[in-house]
């Protein structure tokens, strides 16, 4: 009987480990953002009903759900993990947010972000570095980018929340030293 429990624990641990880290090669391993930080990210961005928010690497969909539910914004999550996509879609359905929230199953490097007015990220420094040119090419001037924990090299944040490790960037049309600009 004890060996069954040991095997069950081993199988659970391996399954959980694969579930948490398998998406790391696509951008970042999964680590959920606290609900308090999610709210801070959305508040820092000035999110509201006229915004279209894209959460890159949306995980369990908590930013998407919060943006649609509390801030009344249109929210789109992009997630590579099919299990997290299903979980997110289930939450959206249970909360009756289908008209304002949706999840795209795929690689955010292949998703058109041009309709976004706000982009949220909690990826890795390397992924942010790769993402810079995509954001500069696709986002309109005035689009806000909020990054949790990791920064964008060479971009000067418009605002910082050091206590919560948040950086806000605003896309610029005209050259502004250190600010993200469209080519």
Walk me through the structure:
With 183 residues, the protein is α/β, with parallel strands linked by helices. It has one domain (25-170): 3-Layer(aba) Sandwich (Rossmann fold). The chain is 36% helix and 18% strand. The chain contains 5 helices and 7 strands; from the N terminus they run ααβαβαββαβββ. It has helices spanning 2-21, 35-45, 62-69, 82-94, 125-138; strands at 52-56, 74-79, 101-105, 118-121, 144-148, 159-161, 166-170. The longest helix has 20 residues, at 2-21. The termini are far apart. The model has no long low-confidence stretch (mean pLDDT 86).
Number of domains: 1
What is the tally of beta strands?
Answer: 7
* First and last CA, distance: 65 Å
Strand order of the largest sheet: 3-2-1-4-5-7-6
